[in-house]
Design goal:
With 348 residues, the chain is α/β, with parallel strands linked by helices. Helix content is 32%, strand content 20%. Helix 1 packs across helix 5 and helix 10 packs parallel to helix 11. The structure holds adenosine monophosphate and magnesium ion.
Length: 348
């Protein structure tokens, strides 16, 4: 299959958008930018489109997809028993990086929900995404547009790297703004439960709807505690190199990473270092990449997946990373970094 790329960085190309919408209506696949990461879209109400998404990504089909909508009214047709909390959260955060889980209505095929009786729904805050959803019939199922197990794509080139020849079209909207996937909150039963941390953190949610809980699987290192978000059991964001997070007082972290990088290079290994802007200058060995400034946490979020991909391309053997416990997005950043590291942390 030939994958067509349509560039829509500064304005929407209406003709190509119509083509993209027609592809979705005919059951094809279109990758598109959102404010979080690039999504791989198919018609959410078409079971076969969901199958194609799983095949293109090489993703296990029990890992449910998020349904993207462009109007709040669209929610009523697919979600059953929408609680008041959902309306409040939608008022506060939609369009935006928040996914809510509801009991599903008949209209949503099990192919889209990975066999579950619940459906995950989000309204993305990106003009290209919203235009595509409208052009494609109103319901676009979309996981991140990467091959399963690779870091999520934060620009169109990442999508091409993984999916060229496997999907019909890529809409290139430039670099994304946030760079980490949406926050997921389960509203289908009991106390609203956060299944995946993101840009919108627990405190922001609680300011709107009161008490929420963190999924036990998220808080635990014990892989026997099964998270409620099925996808979380799969290995994610895994770079080819082994990644270790080094934690502790900043000076000691820098000294230890320098020592480990020297030892690795002496042994003939290629070493990658992920550093905050504030400490980059203190590293003497390895391939050092600045992830962003500690005073601008969104810059850290935005660059994480791109740096992991770059280290894959450079065929780095080992990666050492500083830890980034920033105030708003720290939990989301560390959740992704910990998964990429397979929970390998070194305390100094
Ligand atoms: P991605 O699109 O790659 O960010 O992955 C979507 C993720 O959303 C899945 O891996 C699940 O963790 C989560 N998800 C989607 N639908 C549901 C659902 N009905 N219940 C729980 N988690 C869900
Ligand atoms: Mg994903």
């Amino acid at each position: 299959m030939k994958t067509v790329t349509a560039v829509m960085r500064d304005r929407i190309d209406q003709e190509m958008m119509e083509k993209a919408g027609a592809i979705l209506k005919q059951g094809g696949l279109v990758a598109f930018p959102t404010e979080t990461v690039y999504g791989l879209g198919g018609n959410a109400l078409d079971e076969q489109a969901a199958e194609k998404i799983y095949a293109a990504k090489g993703r296990p089909s029990d890992n449910p997809l998020i349904v993207h909508i462009a109007e709040f009214e669209a929610l009523e047709r697919i979600a059953d028993g929408i609680p008041e909390a959902a309306r409040k959260l939608a008022d506060a955060f939609w369009p935006g990086p928040l996914t809510m889980i509801f009991n599903k209505k008949e209209l949503v095929p099990h192919g889209t929900t990975g066999g579950l009786e619940t459906v995950a729904v989000r309204m993305p805050d990106h003009p290209v995404a919203l235009a595509l959803i409208r052009a494609g019939g109103g319901y676009v199922a979309a996981p991140s547009a990467n091959l399963s197990g690779r870091p999520s794509p934060t620009c169109a080139a990442h999508v091409q790297e993984d999916l060229d020849g496997r999907i019909d079209m890529i809409l290139d909207g430039g670099d994304v703004g946030i760079g980490l996937e949406s926050t997921i909150v389960d509203l289908s039963e009991g106390v609203p439960t956060i299944l995946r941390p993101g840009y919108i953190n627990q405190q922001m949610l609680e300011e709107v709807i009161g008490r929420t809980e963190m999924d036990r699987g998220l808080l635990s290192d014990d892989s026997d505690v099964r998270p409620r978000a099925p996808g979380m059991k799969y290995r994610h964001y895994a770079p080819k190199a082994s990644l270790t997070i080094v934690e502790g007082p900043q000076e000691r972290v820098i000294a230890r990473i320098n020592q480990l990088a020297d030892e690795g290079e002496a042994a003939g290994e290629k070493i990658g270092v992920i550093a905050a802007a504030e400490s980059t200058q203190h590293y003497g060995s390895g391939i050092v990449r600045t992830i962003g400034s500690r005073s601008d946490e969104i810059s850290i979020a935005r660059h994480l997946f791109g740096i992991l991909r770059e280290f894959d391309r450079l065929e780095v053997d080992r990666i050492y990373s500083e830890s980034f416990e920033t105030p708003q997005m720290g939990q989301a950043i560390m959740n992704r970094l910990m998964k990429a590291a397979g929970h390998q942390v070194m305390e100094v």
